[in-house]
Structures are given as C-alpha cells and as structure tokens.
Q: What sequence folds into this?
C-alpha cells in the first residue's frame, strides 16, 4: 500500500539522486509533485552528475502554487513553495530535510518526512539491503545530516553506527 501524495523539496531530491534512489519515491507514494521553485532549483546546474537523472524523473511532476508565497521571508523559496503547494492541494507528506523549514512546516500541521526517514522505511520494506553505505555516500558528497539521527536509524536496523 502506497502513502498518497508527497510534495518534495530540493534537498532530499539531490540526496536521493546522489545515491541513485529517486525511484524510492514512486515505490512509497502514489504521486510525487514539486513546486515550480523547486524545479528551478534542481535543474539550475545542467553540468551536475545528477542533472539528467533529476530532470527525467521530475520533468512531468511540477505544479505551480496558486496563492501568494507569504512564507519566503522565513524559509528559502523552494521550501516555502513546497509548504504552500502541500497546503493548497492537501498533500499527505512533505519531503524536506532542512531543520528550520521542517520545524516551521510541522508547526503549520504538515506531515513531514526527511531523506533519512524515507530510507529507513525503504529498509524496513527490504527495498534496500543496508543503509550505512548510502549514508557514507551522502556524507562524502557534503549532504549534511545529524550523525545522531543517522546512528539512531543505523541502530534501529542493527547496522554499525559511527563513532
């Protein structure tokens, strides 16, 4: 059983593309959408190693927001449009990693999940055999996640934690 509609912010998209796991979004959710601001952000660097993968996955998944973006003064443009799109279409999940933006979204009543949580769910479903090597790739590629959070998830799955 899939989990409805998810709105994705740019950070998790980049992280999932780096570890070649964008398809997890299709496995976990019925639909994946992004606001136009996130599309602009994820397709800005056409020379990046992940550009083609990201472009092909999201080219038909963009949606405009219909209202005024009144959140752009407290979070970045992509994050704020993601929150607004979630609210406008009554999505089921917001995929977001930025701690400040996620805290704001949760205070607004949005159901949030991050990259690490999404990968943990995929591991629970046995869609990926282990997490530590994926976390290492993320950290090597300067994707910033809390080591405490990573260790909590690794412990949950009986994998080796970081010292």
A:
């Amino acid at each position: 059983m899939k989990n409805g509609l998810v709105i994705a912010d740019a950070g998790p998209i980049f992280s999932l593309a780096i570890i070649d796991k964008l398809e997890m979004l299709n496995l976990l959710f019925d639909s994946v959408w992004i606001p136009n601001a996130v599309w602009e952000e994820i397709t800005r660097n056409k020379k990046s190693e992940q550009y083609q993968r990201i472009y092909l996955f999201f080219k038909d998944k963009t949606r405009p927001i219909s209202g005024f973006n009144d959140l752009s003064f407290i979070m970045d443009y992509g994050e704020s449009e993601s929150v607004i799109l979630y609210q406008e279409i009554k999505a089921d999940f917001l995929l977001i990693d930025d701690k400040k933006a996620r805290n704001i979204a949760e205070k607004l009543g949005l159901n949030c999940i991050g990259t690490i949580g999404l990968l943990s769910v995929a591991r629970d479903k046995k869609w990926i055999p282990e997490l530590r090597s994926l976390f290492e790739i993320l950290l090597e590629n300067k994707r910033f996640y809390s080591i405490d959070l990573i260790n909590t998830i690794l412990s949950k799955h009986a994998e080796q934690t970081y010292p």
